[in-house]
Amino acid sequence: MKQTLDIGLVYSRSGSYRRLSDAGRAGVLQAVARVNADPAAAWTIRVHEADPGGHQDHYAPAMLGLHRQTGSRHFFGAITSSGRKEMIPALERCGASLWYGVPYEGFEAADCVAYMHSTVNQNVIPLLDWALPRLGRRVFLVGSNYIWGWEINRIARDLIADSGCEVVAERHLPLGDTDIAALVDEIARTRPEIVLNSLVGQTQYCFLRALRAAGLSCRVLSCNFTEAELPEVGKAAEGLISVGPYFAQEGDEFGNSLERAGYLSVMNLVRLLSLPGADAAMTLPELLALDPGDIDPVSHHVAQPIVIAELREGAFAPLLSLPVTAGDPYLARAPRAKSERPRLRIVK
């Protein structure tokens, strides 16, 4: 007889980044449908949902509400790093876990989180390692004004300096801000060869449309743009170069990497709960200790391929494919050579 597994979905179905939420949620529900239709599966999954509405301070209350009402101990969603960080203390208090399927900025390894998309050694580092020798030396950094934008641009500054290249400027816009005229004007004046775009949601869509309308020739790079957002920007994103574990090709099962990450999150949870000795009351570290699969049992980051691709005629064409790479959120496994830079000294 099958056991019932209650799970909680905490995706913002409204707000400025709802398309990202919709993509991750679609992958989760696809996996749930597959598990529930499988007569050999040990579990039947029951889904409960809450919508934080794109408000960062609503994620933890939404998760706690589902936990109290349904007993759910495994959650999917969050999207932004601010939402994830709001949830972590609440998850820890109730012994629950979050399956997080979005690219993020690294420098975190919470016991209660499974990181199922790319981290820094799987996104911004390989992207800039590929782009700087090929596309130009003058880089304009732009990001949403929260931890994702801050940290991606901080790491990018180091990579750009180590490569002997130049940061032309760095600008951050509030999440959801669509007043981007001054930013585009500054890019037109400073004429960078590359724009590293770490904007999120509606801000990014407005930015890409405005860049295209201005006719600027700089190349746009992104660590977080996927096919899920193409309906918002259409041809304005043509030529954008992105990095991720997966880009959809004709006939593929998933439409984008967020959908794929949501699907793999559910399938990994079911796999863990179906192992000999597994118990539904176990914490995420206890489950991973049984057989982690592709998830690092210490950092909880998934190993996955790295693909750099360019948007051409509405689809991503791979430019470089790297083998499956373990997530290294603290950049501890493969230290990069650092260039000599001026050091501060005390002036007496």
Automatic annotation (TrEMBL):
Q: Which SUPFAM superfamilies match?
A: Periplasmic binding protein-like I
Question: What is the name of this protein?
Answer: Amino acid/amide ABC transporter substrate-binding protein, HAAT family
Q: Which organism is it from?
A: Paracoccus chinensis
